[in-house]
Amino acid sequence: MSFIIAAPASGSGKTTITLGLLRAFSRAGAIRAAKSGPDYIDPRFHEAACGAPCVNLDAWAMSPSRIKALAADPTPLIIEGAMGLFDGAPPDGKGATADLAHILGLPVVLVVDAGKMAGSVAPLVNGFLNHDPGVKIAGIILNNVGSPRHERMLRSALSDIRVFGALPRAPELSQPSRHLGLVQAQERPDLEAYLDQVAALINSHVDLAALMRLNSALPRSQNTPSLTTPAQKIAVAQDAAFAFTYPHILADWRAAGAEINFFSPLANEAPAPVDLIYLPGGYPELHAGQLAANTIFLNALRDTDAQIYGECGGYMVLGETLIDADGTAHQMAGLLPLETSFATRKLHLGYRTLRATEGPFAGAWKGHEFHYATTLRAEGAPLFKAEDAEGTQLPPMGLIKGNVCGSFAHIIDAC
Known about the structure:
- With 415 residues, the chain is α/β, with parallel strands linked by helices.
- The protein is 27% helix and 28% strand.
């Protein structure tokens, strides 16, 4: 049993249903999770729900062999899609959840938010069933159903289309969110109770036995492609302010012989003596005052000869000033001539092809940009040449100065 949870559009309830399925199936045996696309937040919820690591499978940034290698394992796998089933990057929609269905040969369970429809559910679902013959939709889960009568109307309209379950409206299960997505899993003290509540709803309204009978098997794969490590000894910042790391990248570095240890800037910890300090993205803007006061952490960055690399949030912390949403300016490490602000937010979103000639990540990379920060000042040598998903050249990204560099882009895989 392995399958993909997808939907016609974002906001249909994929994440809640995926979490409930993972928690429910985990009680009967081992289950794994994966997330389609460049998402850092949902995978941590997946891990809490099933008790196993969750990987990202990105059909835009990763090769089919990379995806097959990351997915390969005899343990059943549930993949949560992103956006709508056929929504991908311009110009041709590459990277859609449907691409994972093609690459892995897995069936799709379509989640349909039926809260504001009755008979119209049939043409909607039939359109998805017939849009791409290479994508097998095994059946649907109806979400946001108003009453038993509403459910009967929906099932009647769907006729011979397989319905695995129908979930009633449950506004109490909506999750708190902020500007980059859900509030992070590690910030939810009620997480276990929430996951149990969602699993109970799934158990009551979804035919788990029918899902377990889905005839699906992951393709065999060659050895996992691995990235070379950028350094022998690497310190990775990890806490609520710096949580956006891809497990496959850390795993590749370890496989290439790197020694990785973690430290918490929020706890005012200094990294151990290493060759590379990696500050990943996250939410430093929510903790800017605390970070500015953590002199042990900041002075360790200022005094080291190690290479330092910052992504997105980590990049902002390497700059001189970070202005929070209230307009308060906070002094950061001051290692890059950079000033950023959340006082006036602007969305920057999209896949990126990146090329660097210097720094720990010299070479060509596939990456993603997703932030609301505004750059007020960035002076000096840029780190990356950049293109968008359509191959259009963008202004250079990031900065490099001596042993310090970074940008707003998140690296996903090598080109």
